[in-house]
Amino acid sequence: MSWTLRALMVLGTVVLCQCGGTMGSGNMGGPATIEERKAAIASEPTGDFFYGRRYYVQKTRFWGYLKRPRQGWDKAKLIIVREDKKRQPDRLPENGPDGQRYGYDQNFEYRLNGYLTGKEAYDPNSNQFLPEFMLTGYEVVNRNPGWLFRPDDRYDPYRITVYPR
After folding, report:
1. Which pLDDT does position 22 carry in this prediction?
2. Is residue 85 part of a domain?
3. Of the four listed, 8, 15, 53, 126, which is most buried by Cβ atoms within 10 Å?
4. Could you give the CA distance from residue 90 to residue 105 in angstroms, rounded to a whole number?
5. What is the distance between the alpha carbons of residues 94 and 98, in angstroms, rounded to a whole number?
6. Residue 4 domain-assigned (yes or no)
């Protein structure tokens, strides 16, 4: 085996080991365990509303994940918001200053009023047909709720990385 081939194999092994060491840790913060998250969900107030988690990925038009009170996030659906009755919370220019532009509320948790229309809408940038939600009102519940599905969730603003599994 040539020296060059051995060097490439060693380099490849080092790179793979480095990746493996970071794959299990998330970057979204939040409760330390799944059990803590389940306890928080079990104690959520109930009513005729939804909980929504804003999930912003650049150039996409979906809004985020939606679930019923006390339902696990693993049952949440990625949705597109229809704004005929109420504009979504971050309806701002995409090129505004930090904190004042579309997507500023990435990972905020909301209490959303409205209903699923029974229709699907197409998001061309993610190539998905998603449930359409008619928004009638909202309020921020938590500006920093942490991970959504698992403690190892990793957010990337350029691609979809957070999904039920």
Report:
1. 38
2. yes
3. 53
4. 7
5. 10
6. no
Q: Is residue 125 part of a domain?
A: yes
The total domain count for the chain is 1
pLDDT at 6 over 50: no
Cα 10 to Cα 91: distance, rounded to the nearest angstrom: 50
Q: How far apart are CA 107 and CA 14, in angstroms?
A: 34
φ, ψ dihedrals at 140, nearest 5°: -75, 130
Burial of 63 (C-beta count, 10 Å sphere; 0-12/13-18/19+): buried
pLDDT in tens, 56-115: 999 999 999 999 999 999 999 999 999 999 999 888 878 878 778 888 899 999 999 999
Q: Give the C-alpha separation, 93 to 83, whole Å.
A: 16
Residue 3: phi and psi, rounded to 5, are -60, -40
Tokens 């979906």 belong to which residue?
62
Is residue 94 in some structural domain?
yes
Domain assignment of residue 64, given as a range: 47-165
Which segments within the chain are labelled E, that is strand? 50-54, 64-67, 77-82, 109-123, 128-142
